[in-house]
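QUALITY CONTROL LOG
STEP: pairwise intake check
CHECKER ROLE: data steward
CRITERIA: each record must contain a sequence immediately followed by its structure tokens, with no blank fields

ENTRY 1 OF 2
RESULT FIELD BELOW
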Amino acid sequence: MFKFIHAADVHLDSPLRGLSRYESAPAESIRNACRRAFENLVALAIEEKVSFVLLAGDLYDGDWKDYSTGIFLSRQMGRLGHHGISVFAVAGNHDAANRMTKALDNPANMTMLSSRKVETIRLAELGVAIHGRSFGTQHVNENLASGFAAAERGIFNIGLLHTSLDGREGHAVYAPCTADDLRAKGYQYWALGHIHKQEFVSEDPWIVFPGCIQGRHIREAGAKGCLLVTVEDGAVSAVEKCLLDVLRWVECRVDLTDTTEMQEVFELVRKSIENQSQSADGRPMAMRIRFEGTSSTADELSAFPERFEQQIKSIGAEIAGDDLWIERVENAAVGKLDLESAYSEDSAFAKLLKDILSTPHNPDEISGLRDVIADLRQKIPSEAFGAESVLNLDESQTIKRLVDEAKHMLVGRLLTGGGVK
């Protein structure tokens, strides 16, 4: 019997873009989260006395700013080495973009498998063969799985591969292949990487994405960690999910349906934050609160979003203190409006309301909007529009969202400022 850890997508020292825009953001805590999660991985490996650790790509996050990332990794590998634990890894698309690593030797107990061809590492004392191939360049479009050899008889075969498989939402296509391509090799376990959400594709054989070890933004919400695998008599006997994250990203949805008073809204927020706190496994949280449903309170929320966001942050601070950072408050609730009576009025108010509500949902149909966006890019620092930013204007969905939010805010202010109720 032996154990091993399967982890992927560590993204050591990943930059947290755009955090400077948030006055209350725990930037230092988030910036160090990937390192602390990796330290948790090392501690788990030592505690469980695993025979080896598998890292299925994207250990790094592109090129380093300095050598401190490499020194940190060497220190952690040294901790494992002192306990006789080896590490076998393949490079993913982010690792392949790293120039500094090419100039440094790996720690003595860490093997990075070849990018030129599929390489096999045999651990005779365990009866194990680890087959894997690294990315040689950042963009790998070929089916690397096709080059893996058939399983070796009489031993436990592991495939180590960074791949998008047959595609997953939110992830670029790299080294595409199918689950059947992997099954055909006859391996007992496929240790995959690249997809940041944990997924058990198959259990016969085991084909698994462990997910990233630490969420870095709201699109990586939920518990994150690795897998602890136990092998007995040449077969997997247990696969245990192990939490490693030190900061939990949470999307909190609050249904405002049928609320009529703001006090009801705040009470729902309070209960939602308390529930999320209880299910965060003792981790501090970075939370996005999203209002949904149909309610007459939606108009007031839309009218003065900044004011209500501060009130909601105050509730969060009261409940969780420094263990909660509210990253954003998003209002997708729909107001209960009697627009028929508004349209029937022959007034400037009614005309303005009609003009706002008739704003095209498709940004390309809004005259002059592209010029406004171009002007914004000139006036606001470029980091505000980064890929992880809520103002990523390169995504059409972002522009649609901003148009809808502006429309809701204007309608809300009209209706709460003495117009139609």
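ENTRY 2 OF 2
RESULT FIELD BELOW
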Amino acid sequence: MISDNASTDGTDDICRHYVARDSRIRYERQERNYGAPWNYNRVFKLSQGAYFKWAAHDDLCTPNFLATCVNVLDLNPSVIWCQTRVGVIDSHGIPVRTQGCDLSGAAEVLTAREDSKFVLADSKAMRFAHQRFRNVLLGNNACFDVYGLIRREALQRISLWKPYFGWEKVLMSALALQGKCAEVPDELFFFRVHEDACSASGTLEEETAWSNPNKSSATFNFVVRFQLLVGHIRNVLEAPIGYWERANCFWGIMSYLLQFQKWLSVIPQIVKNTGIGGSTRETLRKHAEPQFGSSGNPPAFEDITIVANDLERQESRLR
């Protein structure tokens, strides 16, 4: 299912071309831009499968990504969503050396059996909801988990995206309270960083335009952060967990608020009323520095060819 959020490039023509070629592809175009969170919710509402995955226009998956994740979910009933190891690439498909590519602390690395099927290495690891919730909340890793394959029934039990930049972490904490996330130890998903990415936004105006373009003015920094905190609290209150688990989750929220070292960087952002994201800008700056040695050649990208023409990229996403 494709939900075109009033794109202004050639997306409409490309999508209709593939719809005409393959009846399995469904396409809906919005006549106005309602913001990315609205569109994420819309495409889920229109979906029909037992498993669901959000797919951004600029990220890439290897041809065996979905089959691998489906096998994991089929073999592990206690796992509600699955993601693979993540590679980071630039706009040309060249690998980017960066920190924070690990999945959230809610993810448990899988192990392969002799028949090449992935299963949980330890069925007791991360079995408590408050452990997974706390690890998501206190973790500093990127929120790549949200682009994994998720059981539809789990998403139906939680509140989805709200129109605030950074809401993916709130969504992940809600999923963590529902069940386990499994990490396939193979790099099958590639997150693209580039100057036009939403994660490269540097101001509240840019972040608001991405999350809620119909808002008349940018939201204050402290308002966005407060809404994210309220989202985590609401997740705990609505989760199907017992009193002991809920109390431990709230203790995790207290630990989150008492991260004094973190506040040293957050308070200046609140005072200056800057955006809350923008980590991609620093990644791109470092990537522009010489890093491939005297030869100037990027490292080999294993067995997958990332640099492809636009048509090949579109086709691989729609298969």
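INTAKE CHECK: passed for both entries
DESCRIPTIVE NOTE, ENTRY 2: Residues 1-33 form one domain.
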